[in-house]
Design goal:
Blueprint lengths: L1 H21 L6 E3 L7 E3 H17 L4 E4 L3 E2 L7 E9 L1 H6 L5 E8 L2 E9 L4 E6 L4 E3 L2 E2 L12 E4 L5 H17 L2 E3 L4 H9 L5 E5 L3 H13 L3 E3 L12 E5 L4 H8 L3
Parallel strand pairs: 3-5, 11-12, 11-13
Antiparallel strand pairs: 1-2, 3-4, 5-6, 6-7, 7-8, 8-9, 9-10, 13-15, 14-15
Helix pairs in contact: 1-2, 5-6
Length: about 260
């Protein structure tokens, strides 16, 4: 796993430098699927190209699932890299300083490596299955908040109107129960903040594998809990995620169920 980790970290940091250098400069912004809410910039594409090139050079037989390019090689390798080259594109496009690079490695259906790099803060979050989670080399542990009224939560809203509406009911219930709620605009950062104890719980709908692959492993390896909204086992291919310090998890499930 050491070679996998080193390559992923180097690729994330290389892409992060590219992103940081482009931050607050002029760049092209396009819109996906004819929407005005789901942005993609030329920096997303350049970041993805750099990561895909680095991974492909090191592991030419591996599959890669990347946000902008989709899934490339259809070979039968059990190794699949899952890449978000710039999580928080809307933030980046507006000059709001909350975005990151996310790289996960899935082996035979199980995420075994996660790397998330925040280039502005130069924070490198990483985890390997069974080996713990770390921020810039220091071990991470989730928070110890035991009640929602003492918990700081975070969520996000989907790009489409239906998805946004579907989370409004959850949001309105949580805002009355939690100590506070934040929205960073980057699911990967949200998950890493749960892992580091900065946030006590996170929920969101309509995410994609590249949004959560790395971060969900980092939470789990920091001692947190990651499930769907009903407490069942989480899969990066489902569209609902609940991550927490574990201590407020059941209370969050209840709120999501409308209780």
């Amino acid at each position: 796993m050491q070679d996998f980790r080193a390559v992923a970290v180097a690729a994330a940091q290389q892409a992060g430098k590219l992103i940081a250098d482009a931050y607050r400069t002029e760049f092209r912004v396009d819109y996906k699927q004819g929407t005005t809410t789901n942005l993609v910039t030329e920096v997303d594409r350049r970041s993805e190209a750099a990561i895909v090139e680095a991974l492909g050079k090191a592991f030419p037989d591996h599959r890669i699932l990347a946000e902008e390019g989709g899934e490339g090689s259809q070979n039968e390798s059990p190794y699949k890299w899952i890449v978000d080259p710039l999580d928080g594109t809307t933030n980046f496009a507006h000059g709001f300083p909350a975005f990151c690079v996310s790289i996960g490695l899935e082996v035979e259906g199980r995420v075994v490596l996660g790397v998330v790099y925040d280039p502005l803060r130069q924070e490198l979050f990483e985890a390997e299955a069974g080996k713990g989670a770390f921020l810039n080399g220091e071990r991470l542990r989730v928070s110890r908040a035991t009640a929602l009224d003492k918990a700081l939560l975070v969520t996000g809203f989907a790009y489409d109107q239906e998805g946004r509406r579907s989370n409004l009911d959850h949001f309105s219930r949580f805002v009355l129960r939690a100590q506070g709620i934040r929205r960073t605009g980057s699911a990967a950062i949200d998950l890493c903040y749960v892992a580091s104890g900065r946030i006590d719980g996170f929920w969101e709908l309509k995410l994609f594998p590249w949004d959560v692959a790395a971060g969900s492993l980092i939470v789990a390896e920091a001692g947190g809990r990651v499930t769907d909204f009903t407490g069942n086992a989480f899969s990066i291919y489902t569209d609902k995620i609940l991550a927490s310090n574990g201590l407020v998890h059941d209370a969050m499930i209840a709120v999501l169920a409308g209780k």
